[in-house]
Design goal:
15% of the residues lie in helices and 44% in strands. The chain is an alpha+beta fold. It has one domain: Sandwich (Jelly Rolls). The strands form 4 sheets. It has a 6-stranded antiparallel beta sheet with strand order 3-12-7-14-5-4. Strands 6-10-9 form a 3-stranded antiparallel beta sheet, with no helix packed on it. A 3-stranded antiparallel beta sheet has the order 11-8-13, with no helix packed on it. A hairpin with a 7-residue loop joins β9 and β10. α2 packs across α3.
Length: 182
């Protein structure tokens, strides 16, 4: 039984769960889709020191983000922010997009859990592609640290990112939004 984006079970549907590791490992585990090829070509450029894309990401001011259209409905959010305490985090999931989250500089914890075990507090779909959940003690922490640390979250994955490892610190991250279908 697989969970739907609302957290309810449906029979016969396979919904993948989160992947994480370094960029090359995660890339090798994905089903081939041309939109992933576009996304990873962009990431290869953005993570390579000295490229225009890398300089753009490194130049984002804390609290700001840049949106870059990648094609086939995918786009990138180049972000810079200070990590936060868990009590300040927001647990969320998405229906229309898969998140590819890649650290450019810094480190954070992302807590993740299956949405079927979470309680919805606010559903902003379809106007915005986000559903918020009550925080839970049943989440698993993922530590993403250093250039190229990657996590992919599917619609079945509730995730709360940007959490501090120790004291809050500056994080530079790219979040690519890949359409679920297409």
């Amino acid at each position: 039984m697989a969970s739907s984006p609302t957290g309810k079970r449906s029979s016969g549907t396979f919904i993948p769960m989160a992947l994480f590791g370094n960029l090359s490992t995660v890339r090798s585990q994905l089903v081939r889709r041309s939109v992933y090829d576009l996304s990873f070509a962009y990431l290869d450029d953005a993570l390579k020191a000295g490229t225009a894309a890398n300089q753009r990401v490194l130049g984002v001011k804390a609290g700001e983000s840049n949106r870059v259209e990648l094609g086939e409905g995918a786009f990138s959010l180049e972000q810079a922010y200070h990590s936060k305490l868990r009590t300040e985090g927001k647990l969320e999931s998405h229906i229309k997009y898969i998140d590819i989250q890649v650290i450019v500089a810094g480190a954070e914890i992302i807590e993740v859990g299956e949405i079927s075990a979470l309680r919805v507090t606010e559903n902003l779909t379809p106007a915005k592609d986000v559903i918020f959940y009550q925080q839970s003690n049943e989440l698993s922490p993922l530590r993403l640290a250093g250039l190229g640390a990657t996590a992919i979250f599917y619609p079945n994955d509730g995730h709360m990112g940007g959490l501090a490892i120790g004291a809050p610190a500056l994080v530079r991250k790219i979040v690519i939004k890949v359409p679920v279908t297409g």
